[in-house]
Amino acid sequence: MDIFFQQIINGLVQGSVxxxxxxGYTMVYGILGLINFAHGEVVMIGAMIALAVLQAxxxxxxxPVLAVLISLMxxxxxxxxxGYSIERIAYRPLRNAPRLAPLITAIGVSIVLQNLAMMIWGxxxxxxxxxxxxxxxxxGGAIVNDVQIGIVVVALIIMAGLLWLxxxxxxxxxxxxxxxxxxxxxxxxxxxxxVISNTFMLGSALAAIAGFMVSVNYGIVHYYMGFMLGLKAFxxxxxxxxxxxxxxxxxxxxxxxxxxxxxxxIGDLTGGFLGSHYQDVFAFFVLIAVLVxxxxxxxxxxxxxxx
Amino acid sequence: xxxxSDALLTLDKVGKRFGxxxxxxxxxxxxxxxxxxGLIGPNGAGKTTLFNVVTGLYQLDSGAFDFAGQRYTQxxxxxxxxxxxxxxxxxxxxxxxxxxxxxxxxGRHLRTSTGIWGxxxxxxxxxxxxxxxxxxxxELLDYVGITTAHQTLAKHLSYGEQRRLEIARALATEPxxxxxxxxxxxxxxxxxxxxxxxxxKVRADGITVLLIEHDVKLIMGLCDRVAVxxxxxxxxxxVPEEVRRDPAVIAAYLGGEAT
Lengths: 307, 259
Known about the structure:
The structure holds two protein chains of two kinds.
Chain A: H1 2-32, H2 39-59, H3 64-91, H4 100-121, E1 126-127, E2 136-139, E3 142-145, H5 146-168, H6 170-180, H7 182-187, H8 192-218, E4 220-221, H9 225-240, H10 245-269, H11 279-293
Helix pairs in contact in A: 1-5, 1-8, 1-9, 1-10, 2-3, 2-4, 2-8, 2-9, 3-8, 5-6, 5-8, 6-8, 9-10, 9-11, 10-11
Chain B: E1 7-18, E2 21-32, E3 36-40, H1 47-54, E4 62-67, E5 70-72, H2 77-83, E6 85-87, H3 100-107, H4 116-121, H5 124-144, H6 159-171, E7 177-181, H7 189-204, E8 208-212, H8 216-222, E9 225-230, E10 233-238, H9 240-245, H10 247-254
Helix pairs in contact in B: 3-5, 3-6, 5-6
């Protein structure tokens, strides 16, 4: 039972990160019908920026708490600018192009960002440790530390805030209006380009937070980290029903749990033949299963007209 | 020809082509402030195309139009909405998964300004504006006669209510010109009478109305002036009685069966 609880906790932590990233995929898809495959790279850039700023601030003898907050803010600001630029430069010129063109462009942007990061930060793994102690707690045989609690709590607050923003603010109403009917929205005076830019910036800010979280959780950043994380989060978005905000949240947490329980028990199930490093198999097994049996996802309604 | 200075919308030889098909040919007309102006013509005559041009959904190929003293050869829908043109659609285009109230609230987007910081910090200005948006949206729903279904999803409203909701949403943008594309389509007789009263009330409140409609009785009973389009050309214009007797109009509508 200990391993069960431990894997549940690990799954919730990882799932919170997936959920934040998946929200970025699903918001852009909801409004543009585009899978922004460069989104995982935005997460990686966020982590890299946070680390660089954090190290610089700590070297300049800033107080640890202040340094962490500023580095997170900077990562969010840079990612928002990056998300805005990606849309502006790579996607907007292709707004009316056949659907394949922006998709391939997205993959291109992803490769460009990866290589850019490799040139700036190198190929090696960088250690990412918080400048304060994370106390571990024993809960019913499982171990959970402050960082993990922080990740889940912050993710929950952000998700609740996002739902509120989308459903009860002027900007959120404009986003939903554009997602439902762009022509009618623009005739109501909604500037579609601005809504799309806002969506990319919002998604990228969440990506920066997720990048920060995943880095402090694993203690490592790497130029290639966004690739697999992006694919997993995309899977989570599809699992929940792409285009659906609550679906992305549910899909993220579920995928985290499935992966983590799968990794915990795969050794026992296969008599030691497959080890926990096969955990990625579960995410993509889920993706295939969803695409085969329920392509609209758990919370997805009937496939959107534009899908 | 009336004095042009009292015109709210003037079309000056507007032309629009789709590939080899000419949808509008040199259409000129002017709509005076405060009038109800009807646009009629057989199916495919270019009425909706004309709407799409003056609301910015289509870019015109030749000519220009003046709205409220400003000349346009090309523009964008949200800028024309800002300038004061609002419209409804022939095939209703509501935000179907949003409530009736929310639909109208989207219409207030243009005349409000809270950004993401206001929304996140929920400062006094943002809260006051949001309250005002809700209040105004409720008033507009009552105005068009949707009194109880404020929290119903738009897609669950009756057909007549959906048409009126579209009008409320358009009115929320505080238009100078309200352009309605076949508002009575699919309405029963009672609903049409209510619509007529509503449009008279709108005009009385100082909003100019441009109306595409097939219901001849409604057009004749409501419009101050009428223009007739056929194959993308304006073939007649004038007060309804005069237009109804115009031989070119009779021929366009009834084809070979005329005379």
